[in-house]
């Protein structure tokens, strides 16, 4: 990598300070539901970028000054731009560990945490259009709704199907058109969450498998067994419907006009990406945190978040 420019904030690495290689990538956050009988329902909750780290040698007359400059950047804990080989990230320094050997020679190891991957090529890596994704998830949710057989859910999904069919091009849709789709999607997701809670209660409330316990009448045991079996059978469909509606809502939120004081529902993710999408500045996540009284910037499950229209630059810790 000696032929590339490696820059962190306003610090440009030089000569032997540039490493031979830098590891990238990360994981996909998965929620795995293990149901009775060995069935698994796997929900994808979004990317989880691994920390970016490398090592190098500061070999110059001002090696100690350069070491102190990097260490000051670490202590400030501010988001910084990291760029190299056409890649761009917004990061925060997690650790900087220098080892002084001579006044002119310092070995170092640095590790940064990715806040936002700003590389356009990676953001556009998907081959499925957002229109196709929304329509596919609507169809999947509707099919699952028929299998679940709840009248309230079926009604919300029917409204969702009609609303989606009324939009010819989601990328060109106005905010009001997107809200016509978002409202029944939110209602359906809320109903799915209620049904999941009820199904879990039925399964967890039975002391023994099938509900067959000593002293219980045959009819009571049969009823308990049927209730548990029905609830267990529905859970796979409910979790799949929850995943489809979560993806659909996340795609709708990508299309929402930014910074308009809207409310968004997201499946997983984090406040950094919401702030980047709404304001073009991931550091404004504090404003979203304070508006929603959320202390943890990492979101889990289906979460509705209010996006302030005029975020103050107040910094500090979230007010919870």
Q: What this model shows, in words?
A:
With 320 residues, the chain is an alpha+beta fold. The chain folds into three domains: 7-123, Elongation Factor Tu (Ef-tu), domain 3 (Beta Barrel); 130-255, no CATH class; 257-320. It is 43% helix and 23% strand. It is built from eight helices and ten strands. The strands form three sheets. A six-stranded antiparallel beta sheet has the order 2-1-6-7-8-5. A two-stranded antiparallel ribbon has the order 3-4. A two-stranded antiparallel sheet has the order 9-10. A hairpin with a 5-residue loop joins strand 3 (26-34) and strand 4 (40-49). The longest helix is centred in the last third of the chain and has 38 residues, at 218-255. The chain is elongated. The model is unreliable at 121-127 and 315-320 (pLDDT under 50).
């Amino acid at each position: 990598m000696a032929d590339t420019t490696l820059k962190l904030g306003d610090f440009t690495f030089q000569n032997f300070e540039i490493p031979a290689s830098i590891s990238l990538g990360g994981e996909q956050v998965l929620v795995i539901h293990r149901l009775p009988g060995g069935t698994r329902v796997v929900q994808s909750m979004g990317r989880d970028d691994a920390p970016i780290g490398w090592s190098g040698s500061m070999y110059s007359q001002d090696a100690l000054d350069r070491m102190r400059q990097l260490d000051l950047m670490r202590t400030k804990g501010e988001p910084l731009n990291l760029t190299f080989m056409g890649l761009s990230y917004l990061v925060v320094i997690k650790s900087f560990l220098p080892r002084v050997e001579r006044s002119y020679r310092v070995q170092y190891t640095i590790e940064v945490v990715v806040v936002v991957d700003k590389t356009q090529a990676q953001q556009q890596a998907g081959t499925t259009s957002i229109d196709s994704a929304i329509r596919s998830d609507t169809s999947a949710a509707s099919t699952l709704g028929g299998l679940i057989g709840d009248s309230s859910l079926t009604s919300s999904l029917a409204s969702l199907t009609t609303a989606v069919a009324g939009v010819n091009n989601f990328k060109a849709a106005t905010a009001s058109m997107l809200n016509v789709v978002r409202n029944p999607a939110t209602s359906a997701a809320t109903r799915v969450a209620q049904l999941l809670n009820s199904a879990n209660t039925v399964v967890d409330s039975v002391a023994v498998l099938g509900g067959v316990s000593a002293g219980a009448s045959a009819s009571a045991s049969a009823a308990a067994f049927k209730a548990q079996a029905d609830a267990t059978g529905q859970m796979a469909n409910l979790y799949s419907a929850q995943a489809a509606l979560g993806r659909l809502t996340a795609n709708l939120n990508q299309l929402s006009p930014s910074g308009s004081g809207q409310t968004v529902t997201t499946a997983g993710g984090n406040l950094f990406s919401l702030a980047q999408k709404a304001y073009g500045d991931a550091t404004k996540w504090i404003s979203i945190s304070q508006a929603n009284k959320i202390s943890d910037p990492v979101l889990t499950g289906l979460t509705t978040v209010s996006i302030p229209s005029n975020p103050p630059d107040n910094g500090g810790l979230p007010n919870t």
